[in-house]
Amino acid sequence: MKIFDTLSVAEKELDISDKVRIYLCGVTVYDDSHIGHARTIIVFDTLRRFLESQGIKVEFIQNFTDVDDKIINRARAENVSTDKISSKYIVNYFKEFDNLNVRHADMYPKATEHIGDMINLIKVLIEKNFAYVSTNGVYFSVSKFHEYGKLSKKKTDELVSGARVEIDETKNDPLDFTLWKFANEEPKWESPWGPGRPGWHIECSAMSLKYLGSNFEIHGGGRDLIFPHHENEIAQSESYSGKNFAKIWMHVGMVTINGEKMSKSLGNTKSVDHVLKKWGANIIRLFCLSGHYSKPIDYSEDLLREAITKWRQVENCYYELVLSDDGSAATEDVKLIEETVKETKKEFAEALNSDFNTPLASSAFFKLVKTVNQIASSEHMVSSLSNMILPVFDQMLDILGLKISQVSPEEKIKINELINKRNLLRSQKNFQGADNIRKEISNLGIVLIDHKKKTLWMKQERIVAENS
RNA sequence: GGUGAGGUGGCAGAGCGGCUAUGCGUUCGCCUGCAAAGCGAAUCUAUAGGGGUUCGAAUCCCUUCCUCACCUCCA
What distance in Å separates the CA atoms of residue A251 and residue A49, rounded to the nearest whole number? Predict the structure, then answer.
């Protein structure tokens, strides 16, 4: 599989000789997550699902930043402990992302549980003369790391002249960044240099080095983390280990709204909670995967509505497959299906293997859906065909992280009873009665499909936004 | 100002030297008792502008214009 690497500015072959180790920069738990966070996490969740579907072992780690000025500010504003804030938003995180059908990472390390690792790392950096102690804290000396800027393609002298760098008298160089910040108020930890708390960047270096080693396969995050966060991580980690850090740097594009980046500071966010209630996980996932991961994607209700239309086709397809009658198929249909299944599988995998092209992969998937619906519409769908399709269909659905609404066995019995009753009324030309039953069934979330020879049903996911 | 990514039909979105995906939308039709869902057909004669290179360019080169992101915390 090839993935575009931000560092080398080229597609790079993913090393799958052993397991694929992935470190994803997670969220800072000080507020609700929004769909921008969701996109990045969904992309990596889908990547992980795809790799595993290919029989590749994946070790996937995603951190929580649970010590940070934003958390502290929030805690002060609400007059509670920082711990209370971070644990609240971690609980929320899992609630929301479980609902988004995001599989759990192998580990969710927290910054506060790795203070010792960070201190050790900083110690080595000081010993190696890459860091120094000042009156405010411990700083990384950017000028000592000669490759600084290699990820973000920034020149250090240009960075200095860029006026936005904070002037701080206690630093040797304006570009130097904090490894350890002295503090006398909570949250604080003891360190060889004095009580305080870690800087943001050192967290991810410490945790990724600890769990994935000094040279792992993929380090990911949103594009906005390239500078300074990932640049600084590289400086710290490579100065510490003397080795190259991540083999591939994979960055996910921003979610925009009206063409503008969605962010807390601009106040134009759509929270995961909100979009989940309104659109549901399947629509959100389809939306997030509808564009190439590296490009920005614009949040719009029209596009989400389009995703609903597609999702309805998938549901239709699924129930046509699952409820097909026994029977043997015409040889031409068998041939067509054999061919389509083979092609779809190939196209799907090829698209994802080529820099994780999810829009291309999903178009392959929708071609399969279309073919199934074509055959179903000509009343040729039988179990011998659907049995050929279902395994592939299910697998692709699973890779995309989509889930079809199911019905219980009891509901199934009830649905079939009602259908039989309705068909009897129809044969008696009691259409009023038949329509009443149809209404009753639709209240169960079931839509009827009248074919020539039989009546099929499908469970439709309830999507709040659809009727508004 | 610097750096990076882009500008493809009404919209979304692939393709990245020759065969112009795919989906949504719109219109009409089929199916139906009527619907719904689905299917079919039609429609849109798309590659930001201008130069080149080439037998041939959306795809390569030059140039102009425009958009976004990063350069401060940010997924």
Answer: 18
Q: Which of residues 174-203 of A touch strand B (CB under 7 A)?
A: 200
Looking at domain A2-283, its CATH class is alpha beta
State the nucleotide closest to A251 in CA–C1' terms.
Answer: B75
Cis bond leading into A228, ω under 30°?
Answer: yes
Residue A139's φ and ψ, nearest 5 degrees, are -120, 150
Q: What is the pLDDT of residue A166?
A: 56
Of A239, A283, A230, A34, the residue nearest A130 (C-alpha): A239
Question: DSSP state, A107?
Answer: B
The ranges assigned to domains in chain A are 2-283, 301-400, 409-467
Q: What pLDDT does residue A467 have?
A: 77
- Whether the Cβ atoms of residue A39 and residue A281 lie closer than 8 Å to each other: no
Instruction: pLDDT band for A163, please (50, 70, 90 cuts).
Output: low
pLDDT at residue A453 above 90?
no
State the architecture of A301-400 in CATH terms: Up-down Bundle (1.20)
> How many Å does it take to go from CA A419 to C1' B21?
41
Question: Cα–Cα distance between A235 and A429 in angstroms, integer?
Answer: 78
Å: A434 CA to B65 C1': 63
* pLDDT, tens digit (0-9, with 9 covering 90-100), for A275-288: 999 999 999 999 99
pLDDT in tens, A279-312: 999 999 999 999 999 999 999 999 999 999 999 9
Of the candidates A358, A368, A364, the one whose C-alpha atom is nearest the C-alpha of residue A317 is A368
**Residue A27, CA: closest nucleotide via C1'?**
B75
Q: What is the pLDDT of residues A318-344, one digit of tens each?
A: 999 999 999 888 898 999 999 999 999
Chain B positions with any atom < 7 A from a protein CB:
1-6, 11-15, 21-25, 31-40, 67-75
Closest protein CA to C1' of nucleotide B15, residue: A360
